[in-house]
Each structure stands twice: as structure tokens, then as C-alpha cells.
Prior knowledge:
single chain; alpha/beta; 41% helix
Amino acid sequence: MRLDRFISRQVVHPFCGSGSAEHLPILMYHSIADEAETGVSPYYRTATSPPIFQHHMELLKSNGYRAVDLKTAVTALLNKPKEKLAVVTFDDGYKNFFTAAVPVLQRLNFTATMFLPTAFICKNRRSFKDRECLTWSEVKELHRAGMHFGSHTVTHPKLVELDWPQIKTELADSKKEIENQLGDAADTFAYPFAFPETNKDFVRRLSETLAEVGYVCCATTRIGRAKPGDDLMQLKRLPANSCDDAKLFQAKLDGAYDWIAPLQAGVKKIKRALAPRRPTANSRAAEKKSHA
């Protein structure tokens, strides 16, 4: 029995109400395809089969949600939403967003926000993690059709392991490339890999750098629903994949998965405390200077 599923459905969900305008589910998808992902824990899988994705979106619709882009949702959060909004987000710029997800979204009059790692989005087809990515011509077509695009860095690195000039380059260059290609603002960002929320100094400086570059919000891998008053540079999301049956997906919409957030933070804190300190370029430079 998958523990997070059991606790969410059987223990927490019976005490939850239905979703409300006060809480914003920001769903996190990656690949919309039939992929086995053998050897990967259900919690960490990043593929959602097309029929399951369609069922998720139909459930979202039947629950009274209107799916909007992330920037629209953030604006609503600042003004306290008056209707049930949801955000459907996709990371990594995979081609099957175009072929498998968008037709479903359009039938339901939904939009979505795709976060692009721009080094893998080119004139000719490239792949990332052995999955084909969108081309710029496809991105432009989708943009004209009402889909929204934000940044997922240039090269999809572990930002916490880079020095700050490199981080700023990843943030600024990806934003500039998307804006040059689409002629529209790219001011939403999704953090690649696990968000280092327990590294307070890093998170503080990242937020400052994101704002300096021109982003209005940052979607993370922190689990839960967003609500008014949340830090817009640390937005929580609800991961979804093929293992989310209707009951688990409903539980996530209703807040029965939010209990994982403090547990997730606690595990990260313990791992960080036990892990050997890995020198960054900044710390190496500081050490070299101190011995000069």
C-alpha cells in the first residue's frame, strides 16, 4: 500500500471539505505519454498517460474550477479569488504537451503554463531526458492558441550548486530568449529539481534575484495548494502522474495532500544537516580569498 495515498484518501480526506476559492491548486505535470517508468517510485514518476490526464482535467472541470495561466492566478491570489481557479503547469517543454495535452485543454476551454528549459527548445527538434521537446515554431503556434510560457532556466541545472553569476545568467537568458521568440512577457518561473526550502539564505537570495531579473512568481516542487498571503517566489504545487486515480486526484484538489508539506520540509532539513557540505563556486572563491 502506498502510504501517502492511504493517508490522504483514508485518513485526511474524510475531514476535508470540497475545494474552495481560497485555495489554488497548481498542478504539476511533465510528460503526457504512456511510459512505464519501471523502477521509479510512484511518488517520483513524471509521466501521465493521455487517458488519465484527460480524466484529471474532466474532474477539474466537474469540480467547478476554471483553469487559468499562472500569472492570472497569482493576480487573483493578491486580490483574494472570487471563483475556483486552478493552474495546469508543465515542466521541461516536452513535445507531447502539444500532441496529447493541448487538445484536451482546448476542448474544456482551459489554458496552461509550460515552463521551458530554453537550451532544449530550438528550431530543430532536440530531446531532454530522452524525451522529444517542442520546437520554437510549435511554441509560437501554441502561444497564438492561448497557451502560456514561462522559464525553467536555460540548461535545467541544480541551481543551488551554482554560483550567483551563473544562476542569474540561467534566469535572465532563458527569460530573454522566450520573450525574443514570442514577443510577450515571460515573467513566471519554475524551479528545476527539488526546491531547497530549508536553505534559507539561498531561498532569500534566489527570491531577490528572480525579482531583479523581472519575474513575478516562482513555482516550486513544494507540495500543497497556494493561498492568499503565500510567498509568490515559493509557490506550492500538486504533483500529478499516471498513479493518480480519480480518488487520489480528488483528495489532492480538496487539500487532503497538503499534510505532506511539513513532512517534506522536515525530511529535507534532516538530509541537509546530515549531508557533507558541498563547496559551491562562491564558497571556494571565499576560501581562496581568505588564504591569499
